[in-house]
Amino acid sequence: MKKVLGSTLALAVLLWAMTVPWQDPAMNVWWWRNQILLLTGLGAWALMSLIMVLSLRPVWLERPLGGMDKIYRLHKWAGIGAIVLSLLHYGTQLSKDLLITLVGRPVRGPRADWWLNTFRHLAEDMGEWAVWFLAAMLVITLWQRFPYHVWRYLHKLLAGVYLVLAFHAVVLVPPAWWAQPAGAFVAVASLVGVLCAVRSLAGRIGGSRRHAAQVVDVQVHPSGVVELECQVQGAWKHRAGQFVFLTLQAGEGHHPFTLVNADTGDGRLRFAIKALGDYTARLAQQVAVGQQVWVEGPYGRFDFRQDRAPEQVWVAAGIGATPFVAWLESLVANPAQAPVVQLHYCVRNAQEAVFAERMQQLCAQLPSVTLHIHHSDVTGKVAADALLASAGPQASVWFCGPQGFGQALRDTMQRLGRRQGRFHQELFQMR
């Protein structure tokens, strides 16, 4: 993620630097203000255009970026970066009155005769309103208590905001830029971004990977976990460890859920959903056998088979056990392909250990997989050091569970001098 963001911003800086008249004798405060306006604007536009490409959930980027969950993380931070740069851009624009008070009015030459100047004031006003909307979206996105279903509709409006800002960007680009690489970049980025925005507004994101399905079984565990089994209509194929966007109610929209089962070729999909918010807390009362739902996917590259470490540590924390159950099911048909694994299933109590019995049955058929079940109400909270101590220093770690637990594992690996590249985590913080 950092490489992509860094490369995008570095490209923007390079293109801006190529436009700067570094030998200009009038390099005063007004000259620098103008250059800051151009640089922040170009950087924000580069990130916004990247966001629009990522918003289409491009499967072809899963391999280089590490999976759709990583794409969503990149989308989020690119959005934050774009809004921050937009606010800096707007703040620089607002500095005009202050600078006039401090250093006096600038000496301006005649403005270049350019046909887009007709729309200049309109573009400035539209850009101002768009920045205020972006600032509001940043606040409610970071405020996790803001209702998801409301946020989802507001988030969809960002495609329309992008079209407004595309007009702002194209109109206000200095005419001289159109003969330089910076102008070519703005043109291409704007064209690609506008096409993506139109596709988003038309509701065509993920359409080719969307399947109708029907709920065929519902089980509610004492812990509150709801297990659903769905039958997909039409051809379906997935790898163990992947997830889908499941739409149970049109008004609520889709949510990502990992598949609990391996692909058996019959189009059956199982999900285990824990009450983690208002929507999932009401799920048991709102879903029923026979209900039609929509499944989009599969997505993700959380796959232990790409790992070349001599042994692996799988850490399944609570509902994060779902991909590991699917992995175990996929290995039972051919136990010889199973790596040497220390599997740790970490739960607060026996009631929360929804998959304990199923894991024990599957691991009994896989000699190279050793299962450890940890109940924190009996033995106390399991320490990251203890989990890593079960395998050698060259072991890789595969984790799915709460973000805080995952960060503790990362920190422990770093403290022990283990390579961070051997840590793999499923990221489901998609907002």
TrEMBL record:
Residues that span the membrane, as ranges: 35-54, 74-92, 129-146, 158-178, 184-202
Topology term for the membrane: Multi-pass membrane protein
Sorted UniProt keywords: 2Fe-2S, FAD, Flavoprotein, Iron, Iron-sulfur, Membrane, Metal-binding, Oxidoreductase, Transmembrane, Transmembrane helix
InterPro entries cross-referenced by the UniProt entry: FAD-bd_8 (IPR013112), FAD-bd_FR_type (IPR017927), Fe3_Rdtase_TM_dom (IPR013130), FNR_nucleotide-bd (IPR039261), MRET (IPR050415), OxRdtase_FAD/NAD-bd (IPR001433), Riboflavin_synthase-like_b-brl (IPR017938)
Alphabetized GO MF terms: 2 iron, 2 sulfur cluster binding; flavin adenine dinucleotide binding; metal ion binding; oxidoreductase activity
A Pfam family this chain is assigned to: NAD_binding_1
Primary site of residence: membrane
Localisation per UniProt entry: Membrane
Protein name: Putative ferric reductase
